[in-house]
Amino acid sequence: MHTIGQSVKRVDAADKVTGKAQYPGDIILPDQAYMKVLFAHRPHALIRRIDTTKAEALQGVVAVLTAKDVPVNEYGLGVPDQPVLCGPGSSKPNADHVRFVGDQVALVIADSEEIAAIGRDLIEVDYEDLPLIIDPRIAMEENSTLVHPDRGSNIFCHYRIRKGDPDAAFAKADVVIENEYHTPYQEHAYLQPEAGLGYIDEEGRVTVIVAGQWAHEDQEQIAHSLDLPLDQVRVIYPAIGGAFGGREDMSVQIILALAAWRLHQRGIDRPVKIIWSREESIIGHHKRHPFFIRSRWGATKTGKLVAAEVNLVADGGAYVYTSPKVLGNATLMCTGPYEIQNVKVDAYAVYTNNLPTGAFRGFGGAQGAFAAETQMNRLAEALSMDPVQLRLMNVLHEGALLSVGTPLPKGVSMPEVMEACAKAAGWQIYKGEGGSIKAELKTSPLLKPAPAPHLKRGIGFASSFKNVGFSFGYKENSWAIVEIHGGVEIEQVVVHHAGADDGQGAHTVMAQAAAEVTGVPMEKIKLIVSDTAYTKNSGSTSASRLTLTSLNSIKGAAEAAMERWRAEDRPAVATYQWLAPPTSHFDPLTGKSTPNFAYGYVAQAVSVEVDTETGVVRILDVVSANDVGKAVNPQQVQGQIEGGVVQAIGYSVMENFIHKDGYVQTQYLSNYLIPTVLDIPEQVQSVVLEYPDPVGPWGARGMAEMPFLPIAPAIIAAVHDATGVWFNDFPLTPERILRGLGKIS
Question: Which of 343, 284, 361, 351 is nearest to 324 (CA)?
Fold first, then answer.
């Protein structure tokens, strides 16, 4: 292969280094107007009246829009339970309620951003505050105030798994470990806050230039809210400054389209631009789900897992968003990558008046893995057994049954990944009596002597598996169009694909796939991407799916185009839709299902240093072993591993998102701390394994989320190794560490 497997230069590298690449906030169109949003800044209230008179009278204000200006005032991925604008006069019942501080109430469009901001502040809104529902566990109670009165319950999603007889198995278990865990919010903190432009294009289409993760889904939601035919809406993604799941749901897409469309109806054809401040971004888009997890696991004295019972409660916030998919992953992964014959799981997603929660790298897997892997490490301690040995004794392998009663798809490499990580971190693995697996750690290259008595060092291990694709019954698919131009020789290959490159290098591997099939150098590949006017639906850039799905579709289209080229049908053009193997949703009573068509496998070892005087946790070294199936671009794979590790370290140690009574207390990057260059590990050793996935293009698996998943439990285990203290929640801020050490109350 001449391009697949090569670390070719990114197709956008030069433009991003030189500043030529334009992000939505960089784009300037002639005669553009500017828009500001009036956010509710109230977590739960009824809007009695909105008076826009003063704003409309302000010189330089072009228009003020409220709920009555939205034709179909609803949107949402899967469940359209959120108003575009909250307020009276809406087409949607209960749209006069605000349910979290970031609900949008009115839009001011003006000649400048400054005038728009002044006009926004002149709008008068009469609110009647309503009772707050903050704790999802209380929200589940039968007599709790309803966040959505028309829904009948604050529980909007419940999954259950019933496998074997857990009660009987627990009665026979030699060791039972039971704990309650809490995982925190996390802010996506991508480079560019939400921004974009709305205008009417040369063919009369309502057009939005924006950063997102699924152009055709954005198109569909815009068309629905504006009550327009789909072909009258166009969505374009330019360069995108990061996403991590945070651009999966709507932010400015619909309101930009609404503004351009309403101005056009009034005879004003001006582009409308918006750029959110960091504070607006932090309150205005969803976060990672906090979970409350109660977990009870049982094992024999020889280390065989016999039963697991887990109860999960996810704080879904004010609206559904992608909570059902996130909860599905957590439900599956809360028992880890282990074969357990007796399982009982109940998982709930619940409405509250907190910020909505949704997609974030790991997509529920991180929360499930934290509880599962911490349970395994605590079981190992109770059994006086090496934690790697305990895992290898129980790990899922080819043909083993998941908690949902079906085997993993072929290509299971979890045992090999665990061993590779453990060996790189210093574990010795060998066969014991009767062929049993033994593992022990005598010395580790990750663990050097601490330089002072108050500095304690330790090492921890954790592993996980991650679904590829949405699955759970969703018919995973991706479209591509490939054109081959030229005479005797191929002069250019044009690839049409809607998949978004959110910074991870997706467009580069798309070009590599087309070059591989057609045999041309990368310089002859032209990409037409992320524009609904020229591409067909590719699905979302999320759920670790894009490399696998997009390259399968481009490979199929390019192969078909090459057949036409060889038959001298030129220019050769082919369209191809790749379809994934079928999956199924949880059975409502037993949970039995075929939840995913592919998986990735990861294991990580982490060494830490804990300052027992200040409570500061420093990450020393990380070994991250990932089976990627085929490293299409090895340099980009390494970048995803390192980026995922650092982002997960932020989640585990630093990022203390504070939400009190529905209000965000950490709405700035000055008080919501994310990792900088001084917070990264001294070394991240990327162990890249390539066990081909049967349905992956050239064997490739999706991998970008995997390095995130086991970091938190590995750090928790390492801190315990250093201090003797277990922590059931995080981030491990100095205050939390000192409290755990008994040095503060």
Answer: 351
Q: Could you tell me the pTM of the whole model?
A: 0.97
Are residue 547 and residue 652 in the same domain, yes or no? no
- Count the residues in the chain: 745
What confidence category does residue 92 fall into, taking pLDDT thresholds of 50, 70 and 90? Answer: confident
Q: Residue 14 — pLDDT band, cuts 50, 70, 90?
A: very high
Give the C-alpha separation, 119 to 160, whole Å: 50
Across the range 153-163, mean pLDDT stands at: 98
Mean pLDDT of 357-371: 97
Nearest to 693 by CA among 514, 549, 513, 502: 549
Task: Quote the CA–CA distance of 192 and 212 in Å, as a whole number.
Answer: 12
Categorize the per-residue pLDDT at 94 as very low, low, confident or very high, splitting at 50, 70 and 90.
Answer: confident
Give the model's pLDDT for residue 709.
Answer: 98
Domain of 665: which CATH number? 3.30.365.10
Residues 309 and 256 in one domain: no
The answer to whether 44 and 663 are in contact (CB under 8 A) is: no
Report how many domains make up the chain. Answer: 3
Cα angle for residues 265, 266, 272 (degrees, 5° grid): 80
Residue 463 and residue 499 in one domain: no
Q: Are residues 200 and 268 in the same domain?
A: yes
Same-domain check for residues 700 and 727: yes
Which of 562, 566, 571 shows the shortest CA–CA distance to 486?
571
Q: What is the pLDDT of residue 200?
A: 98
Q: What is the pLDDT at residue 462?
A: 98
Q: Write the burial class of residue 624 (CB in 10 Å: 0-12 exposed, 13-18 middle, 19+ buried).
A: buried
As given in the structure block, the two tokens for residue 404 are 């949902």
C-alpha 421: how far from chain center: 24
Q: Which domain does 661 fall in, by range?
A: 291-396+414-470+588-740
The structure tokens 């020229």 sit at 534
